[in-house]
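Input sequence (381 aa), recorded before submission:
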Amino acid sequence: MTPVELSRTVLRAVRRAVDAGELVAPVPEWAQVAPPGPGGRGDYATNVALQLARPAGRPPQEVARILRSHLADAEGVAGVDITGPGFLNITLDGSGAQDLVAEVLRRGARYGVVDEPTGELVQLHHPREVRAAVTAHAVARILRSQGALVRTSCEDEPDPAWAAVLGVGVDAHGTPAAPAPLNVNVRPVPAGQDPTPLGRDAARWALLHPASHDRPRITSDHLLQRETNPLFRVRYAHARTRALSGNAAALGFSSAVGDVQGNATHLVDAHARALTRNTAALGLTSAPGDVQDNDATHLVDALAAYPHALATAARHRAPDRLARHLVTTADAVLVFQHTVLPLGDEKPSAAHRARLALAEAAGAVLAGGLSLLGIDAPEHL
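Predicted structure, token format:
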């Protein structure tokens, strides 16, 4: 079950409770599901009980208990626990991760993207300042991915270098002729210096990765191929997923969605030893002892949380939230990669094929997220 499907399952549980007269409250249009936070358990958590408590006139814990009875017997749900003030923590049956990987591979870079327009019209207006221009451009792309209709405008004619080097454009300059239903002034803390010498990808990352209230660092550190550079880690992780597919093809096998744990855990230390030399040459420091049996789980969690990260970035007009989630996903890939391919004379197993499918799904998410930020995802790095 994918996060979208689970959200629909939660809404069906709410609807059944309302239809049965157990709750008197409007059924929301969307139920947020995400990996559990601190103190949570299971595969996903939802705050829908807290959301319904006030309109239902009941304590969140009581609403959660009502909904748990309707969720527990839903197809694909193995168990439901209540934690904290009323969070529903949902454990899926064993097919949950497989369904997620299949969904990501099916949708590719469009995973997390809304297919139908929502009808929301947003006007993004920004001053004639390079960080504001790049931020508005990225926010527009993210909002469009979530179904919004967006137009952008600048207070004055933009610097031609912004389009030539940074790929930034606006629909109009000057005062917007006709205000949209939702007008947003994009005014992040300005860049302290011209970022264009860094080139498009590094400059955009330097401006978008920090939160809008933080001053960006415009330094050559963004060009370094080192672990300390988050942009390098994200792009390198994507390149590694592509390399894994190529190496698997050379070994005569391809990916297939399945159980990523399987019997592959005995490969962990051997794979890590074999690849440590390559990662060390690039300044990465992941070591054999860092690889654990739950690395696949961490990566699955990151992929499952991507649509929520994308929706949150759109809602808060905050591309930094998307950038930080890509770093989290990349770090999970760089640890997980060590157990994907067979070692030595070992024959490819179902676990190897499943792990390759998970790596390819992660690559699709990294490529899609970087594209929304206007940054290239090279296949070789």
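Checked by second reader. Residues 81 and 89 are 5 Å apart (CA to CA).
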